[in-house]
Design brief:
Layout (H helix, E strand, L loop, with lengths): L1 E5 L8 H5 L3 E4 L4 E4 L3 E4 L2 E5 L5 H10 L5 E4 L8
Antiparallel strand pairs: 1-5, 1-6, 2-3, 4-5
């Protein structure tokens, strides 16, 4: 499972930070950061989700008010 995070879309509500510890507050930029993620294109970050964090990753995507977080299964199908 992978999570894709579009940092440019983020508006800094930090609801994802409350749901999954992979997201961190960046108060200087007013946006969240996805720790350990790889930037695959400008402002878009991807991270492999550990098995024990799948629920948290999905929930962080569900609570994002601007849909900046998407979760994909191993076949590339979007789950959230």
């Amino acid at each position: 499972m992978k999570v894709e995070y579009d940092r440019e879309t983020c508006i800094g509500m930090f609801q994802c930070v409350d749901e999954w510890d992979a997201f961190e507050k960046n108060l200087d930029d007013g946006k969240a950061d996805l720790a350990g993620a790889e930037e695959v294109e400008e402002g878009v970050f991807v991270l492999d989700v550990p098995d024990d964090a799948e629920f948290d990753a999905k929930f962080s995507a569900r609570v994002c008010p601007v849909d900046a977080i998407r979760v994909y299964d191993d076949d590339g199908e979007q789950l959230v």
